[in-house]
Amino acid sequence: MQGAIHLRADSIRRRDIAAVFLKLGTIAFGGPAAHVAMMEEEVVVRRQWLSRQEFLDYLGATNLIPGPNSTELAIHIGHVCGGPIGLVIAGVCFILPAAVIVTAIAYLYVRFGRLPIANDLLYTLKPVVIAIVVQALIRLSRTAIKSRLLAVTALAAVVATILGVNELVVLIGAGLAVASATRPRGVAASLLFPSSLLAAAVPAPASLLAIFGLFAKTGAVLFGSGYVLLAFLRADFVDRLHWLTDRQLLDAIVVGQITPGPVFTTATFVGYVLAGAPGAAVATLGIFLPAFVFVAASGPLIPRLRRSATAAAALDGVTVASLALMAVVTWQLGRAALPDVPTWVLAGTSLFLLLRFRVNSAWLVGAALVAGLLIR
Question: How far apart are CA 42 and CA 190, in angstroms?
Fold first, then answer.
């Protein structure tokens, strides 16, 4: 495999890697599943840079490390096709278009976010976003909850989250519990979470260093869908530090949905709201930097992790706990997003279309924008 990487890195031009991922970062609406489908079309079907089996192997590898899965897949592809430099090129080019777009929207939001037209647009967008998150939660739960043990673990994680247990404790506890039940000796917590990350303290003021530290911590420990990011953001920025309101967080989530590229660019929006353009830059760097490090370092470890029943069980536990966090935060945000009957109808209709007809979420977001303009 390592020799194949070097051969491809010599034969594929880095400017082609940049062109592909700039394109994907600009047009990849619809969330991680849509991103994966577009990447498969570009690098397997059209350009044949990877075989389908290789593509699936790297897709599976992204689930073994924390961070945004579709972004990490882009970084993996860049690495195998362009070496260490290709790794950086693919990741940066996939992230950059969305980060620029989100920064521009955040600027307009800070200046005009309380104008009636903006409120009208958000009024119709928020219920659609809640429906999209619920649909993702349902779909992911069907795959993740594979046994009675995992179902009980998920329920316990929901209860613990409602009771106010720190989200990192919930994730680690779930991983250790499932691993211990699978193999009595369990698995060391340090296998999944470096203790130095858990011990890191973040100063209270919303300084650039504090913003970077919070997002770097989140990017380094977040397993599961990008939507699980919402639970971490709410716990840190709304509940603990009070830097954001629920409304601002929900607005940030909406922006992450209506823009192409990684959902994690929600962090870019939050950073801008807190500290302007420098805040957006450090938040973006913080949330994505761990993904580059993990992808670069995880190559030799992935075969061994796949063969380890204990590590696989721990990851299953972390995944269902992530979904539990996602469920609780969706319920909490839904209370702010669905204040009246029309918003409930809009959310219910959107969820029905997503589940029954598998409508692309980008179409629903577009329809919500049009509805907001009509209301205006």
Answer: 37
Choose from 107-121, 188-202, 322-336 the range with maximum mean pLDDT. Answer: 322-336
Share of the chain above pLDDT 70, in %: 84
Neighbour-count burial for 87-112, b at 16+ CB within 10 Å, e otherwise: bbbbbbbbbbbbbbbbbebbeebeee
* Confidence at residue 324, expressed as pLDDT on a 0 to 100 scale: 87
Tell me which of 97 and 130 has the higher pLDDT: 97
Give the other-Cβ count within 10 Å of 353's Cβ.
Answer: 19
Q: Which amino acid is at 265?
A: T
Q: What is the pLDDT of residues 283-296, one digit of tens each?
A: 999 999 999 999 99
Secondary structure of the chain in HEC code, one letter for each residue: CHHHHHHHHHHCCHHHHHHHHHHHHHHCCCCHHHHHHHHHHHHHHHCCCCCHHHHHHHHHHHCCCCCCHHHHHHHHHHHHHHHHHHHHHHHHHHHHHHHHHHHHHHHHHHHHCCCHHHHHHHHHHHHHHHHHHHHHHHHHHHHHCCCHHHHHHHHHHHHHHHCCCCHHHHHHHHHHHHHHHHCCCCCCHHHCCCHHHHHCCCCCCCCHHHHHHHHHHHHHHCCCCHHHHHHHHHHHHHHHCCCCCHHHHHHHHHHHHHCCCCHHHHHHHHHHHHHHHHHHHHHHHHHHHHHHHHHHHHHHHHHHHHHCHHHHHHHHHHHHHHHHHHHHHHHHHHHHHCCCHHHHHHHHHHHHHHHHHCCCHHHHHHHHHHHHHHHC
Per-residue pLDDT tens over the stretch 329-354:
788 878 878 989 999 999 999 999 98
- Asked if residue 337 lies in contact with residue 343, where contact means CB atoms within 8 angstroms, the answer is yes
Dihedral sign for Cα atoms in the order 156, 158, 160, 163: negative
Pair 153, 319: CB distance under 8 Å = no
- Positive or negative, the CA dihedral 210, 216, 219, 221 is negative
Confidence at residue 237, expressed as pLDDT on a 0 to 100 scale: 92
Q: φ and ψ at 64, to 5 degrees?
A: -95, -5
First to last CA, the chain: 57
Phi and psi at 31, nearest 5°, equal 90, 180
